[in-house]
Amino acid sequence: MQQSRRIIVHKCMADLPVFFRRLLLTIIVTTALQTALHIAFGRSMKSSNSQSSINNTQMLSHIKASGQLAPDTARFAVLVLYENGGHHLAYSKAATAFLNRWSKQQNFSVHYIQNADLIDSALLSKYQLFIQLDYPPYSWPQRSMQAFRSAVTKGRLGWLGFHHATLLGEFDGYPMWNWFSWFMGGIRFKNYIADFASAYVDVKAPHHPVMQGVHSRFLVSQEEWYTYDQVPGPYIKVLATVDESSYRPDTDIKMHGPHPVIWTNTKVKARNLYIFMGHGPGLWQNPDYVRLFWNALFWTAGKKPMHGFTD
Fold first, then answer.
1. pTM of the full structure
2. Cα(238)–Cα(228) distance, rounded to whole angstroms?
3. Contacts of 268 (CB under 8 A, 6+ apart)
4. Are 144 and 105 spatial neighbours (Cβ–Cβ below 8 Å)?
């Protein structure tokens, strides 16, 4: 049957004038190409939608895998942004283990993302606290920067930042985020101790809620202490400094004066706290650091623990 149809079509084509035969062939070829493109595009869209669904599932996998509560049934909701690779990943993985355990014990939800591209006003509106867990303040899309700035400035979202959050300057081809520099006290990153050093941290505001249960002087056994071009501005309340004279091994990479490592910006409505220490997973073996993180978590969220401190 198919062979008969091909013969009939061939005979009809042969009876047509040359002009019409060419025109008909052009129409047939064009139609075939359009059909092929439609099929290919449809497959691409299906694949894209499927990949988007996979990415969304992966983004939520920590919540589901750890059995945590969804944001609408928890006492409060926490959004955590952390790097998906590099030197700080081990620290972040250790931190997420503590956060997952605490969230179950204290009835809050925690949601992890690894890309600032996902941040917008709609996403941030679902959370009471944003933790910037070793993620630098550059490469963020404009809409993400605007959404974050608005939420923090207007007091809709608490903020808790660690370590890499003060890598302020021009890096990887990106300009410095000037507002974030102001948020951190008008500072710019200057240098760091690449080979690490131990040092003592001195608490300067022992009555602040973040410092409850933390020794007035505690040792951090390994850190790459950043230096900045200046001490954070007068609207910054410093809660702790590092004693540069206690660096072991000693180094010339110092602020040569007050060297804040924990502080809060008093000019924005949101509760906010920056903690410099956050490079390596060994910090989570330090009882003072674990208590500091715990205190900071609840203070910046504006909540009280349901139960006492658990490490």
1. 0.79
2. 15
3. 152, 153, 155, 183
4. no
